[in-house]
Amino acid sequence: MGSRFDEMRIFSGNGNPDLTGLIAARVGVPLGDATIVQFSNENIFVKLNESVREKDVFVVQSLSMPNLSDRILELLIMLDACRRASAGRVTAVIPYFAYGRTDKRDQARVPITARLLADMIQASGAQQVLTIDLHAGQIQGFFNIPTDELTAMHLLVRYWAEKGWDDMIVVSPDVGFAKRARNFAEALNAPLAIAEKRRVQHLGRGDGIHSSSEVLNLIGDVTGKRCIIVDDEIATGGSILEVVQLLRSKGARAIYACCVHPVFAANAAERLRAGGIEELVTTDTLPLPPEKRWPTLTVLSVSNLIAEVIQRIHSGVSVDTIFSQRNHPALGH
């Protein structure tokens, strides 16, 4: 099926340029030429160095650290530049959507920042959004434009399935993730265990709000099992490492972990490396510099998945059918 737009263009912000390069190569188009400069007064300037008039434009930007606020502003300015340059359609491709934990008012006098971010993306000119494994599914509803939330869990499932282990058990790090962990376990034909956890929040002195979590109990028997902890993202690593200790105390044979988004804030990479995890598997939705990598960290690429979906959006073909085909090439690694 042919596209109603003349051509496709893929532009990259500074959030994850390596991933964008892989996506463009797999789609088979050259990376769009754009200049992104931050002046000495910290103002960000964007210029598209080629015409996008009536073209199908995809702006790829992971909302990553460091300089998260700059990455957000880059995305907004790039979307605005595309709109003002008369692009036929502008799609914001956001492999990692920041502020996913601020999806509701869970205490008095706080904002819903995820909704604010969605509003800004739309106001800047995005006509469609493509993202991967939102921390809270209701964020999709914050957008009033077509929004495709992909999942990279299939990549992780296939990786563990190829191990061929018959003694694995999937572990959810908390009750809130239990439904997605259950689906993960079913895909692996493995049992499920759930770490029951209570998160306690307290106000620090002059340095903001801190949270600490206490693991209370484990629902399920992991004795002699290979445990695979699964989560959508790992930020500080604190919750995962608490679950690792719990599983070890309950007689787990070996402990593995996986997540889609490797946020790895502060010294998380060092803590995880020394935390007794046999192997941690993640994806490249966020960039991982050399100092945040170690020998037992495996990174799978989501570039095939995003490239396939971009091609389908451009051609007007259904996206959902990818996930109904277990052996679709886009779900491989």
Summarize the structure.
It is built from 8 helices and 14 strands. The chain has 333 residues and is an alpha/beta fold. Helix 6 (238-249) links the parallel strand 11 and strand 12 (254-262).
What would your notes on this structure say?
With 333 residues, the chain is an alpha/beta fold. It folds into 2 domains: 175 residues, Rossmann fold (3-Layer(aba) Sandwich), CATH 3.40.50.2020; 148 residues, Rossmann fold (3-Layer(aba) Sandwich), CATH 3.40.50.2020. Helix content is 27%, strand content 27%. It is built from 8 helices and 14 strands. A 7-stranded mixed β-sheet has the order 10-9-8-11-12-13-14, with helices on both faces. A 5-stranded parallel β-sheet has the order 1-4-5-6-7, sandwiched between helices. The chain has a two-stranded antiparallel sheet with strand order 2-3. Strand 8, helix 5 and strand 9 form a beta-alpha-beta unit. Helix 1 crosses helix 8. The chain is globular and about 60 Å long. The mean pLDDT is 92.
